[in-house]
């Protein structure tokens, strides 16, 4: 029979602190990694049934293995439990049987194993190596029920870190985009104001049409020669007819008119520049 003990909840031994559900889970995962298909042959439904162990059936090809977990309250497994497993192997036509406990096996049980090569006994020392359990357990084991809340908290923390890093990368991009939009609006506003100012300015002097030159009047015909044989011209006749304008006078008049036009054009340009300067100062004060 078993020698029973209740594991201490405050103990630091990794195997002793495992619940039977976690222990079964770790065993099943270990044999799945070895290529076995794991079935719950006799699932446990109450704490009373835990003393009989948790049975698993392992199959791989033509190999069929019966595994009994004498884990929950067994300190030492005696010969009777080993013989019980041999009977189950015979009834189930299993090719191999494994008896597991977190405690140890009696010397008589070990002697039976030596005579039965299809029988394998696994005590606590073998389980710690097989399941890669530490000697002292300070945190929950990966894959166990106690580790599930910790893993969920770790996943939440990782998601929060990912969200914060994503936000830190997104903030500079949004800032650059906002600055670009503001610069575009400012440039559009300045160009619109420049167009409005250009519409209010007078036309440039270069685009103004040049006034037509006044035609130069033809010289009057020369007076007919006098029939007076005295060789003197009547004073009254010469004073009543004004002398015709010479080419020099006409050229001087044209130069004066051209100067007047240039001065008028220069005044218009100066007035336009003053208006432009005034509008530019107003635009700068508004911005």
TrEMBL record:
Highest rank taxon of the organism: Bacteria
An example molecular function term from Gene Ontology annotations: restriction endodeoxyribonuclease activity
Membrane-spanning segments: 170-188
Composition-biased stretches (Low complexity): 142-152, 202-211
UniProt-listed SUPFAM superfamilies: Restriction endonuclease-like
GO biological process: DNA restriction-modification system
Keywords associated with the record: Membrane, Transmembrane, Transmembrane helix
Chain intervals for the UniProt region annotation (Disordered): 142-163, 202-287
Segments forming domain Restriction endonuclease type IV Mrr: 16-128
Keyword Membrane among record annotations: yes
Protein name stated in the entry: Restriction endonuclease type IV Mrr domain-containing protein
Species name: Luteibacter rhizovicinus DSM 16549
């Amino acid at each position: 029979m078993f020698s029973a003990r209740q594991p201490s909840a405050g103990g630091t031994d990794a195997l002793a602190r495992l619940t039977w559900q976690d222990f079964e889970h770790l065993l099943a995962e270990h044999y799945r990694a070895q290529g076995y298909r794991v079935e719950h042959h006799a699932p446990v439904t109450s704490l009373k049934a835990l003393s009989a162990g948790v049975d698993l059936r392992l199959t791989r090809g033509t190999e069929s293995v019966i595994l009994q977990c004498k884990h929950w309250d067994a300190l030492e497994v005696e010969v009777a439990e080993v013989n019980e497993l041999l009977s189950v192997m015979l009834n189930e036509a299993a090719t191999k049987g494994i008896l597991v406990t977190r405690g140890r096996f009696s010397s008589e049980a070990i002697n039976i194993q030596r005579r039965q090569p299809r029988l394998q006994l696994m005590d606590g020392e073998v389980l710690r190596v097989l399941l890669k359990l530490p000697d002292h357990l300070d945190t929950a084991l990966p894959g166990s029920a106690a580790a599930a809340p910790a893993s969920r908290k770790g996943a939440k923390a990782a998601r929060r870190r990912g969200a914060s890093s994503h936000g830190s990368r997104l903030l500079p991009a949004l800032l650059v985009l906002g600055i670009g939009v503001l610069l575009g609006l400012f440039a559009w506003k300045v160009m619109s104001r420049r167009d409005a100012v250009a519409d209010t300015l007078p036309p440039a002097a270069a685009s103004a049409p040049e006034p037509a030159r006044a035609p130069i009047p033809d010289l009057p015909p020369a007076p007919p020669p006098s029939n007076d044989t005295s060789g003197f011209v009547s004073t009254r006749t010469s004073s009543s007819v004004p002398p015709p304008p010479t080419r020099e006078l006409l050229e001087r008049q044209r130069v004066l008119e051209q100067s007047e036009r240039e001065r008028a054009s220069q005044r218009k340009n100066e007035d336009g520049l003053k208006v432009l300067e005034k509008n530019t100062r107003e635009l700068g004060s508004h911005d």
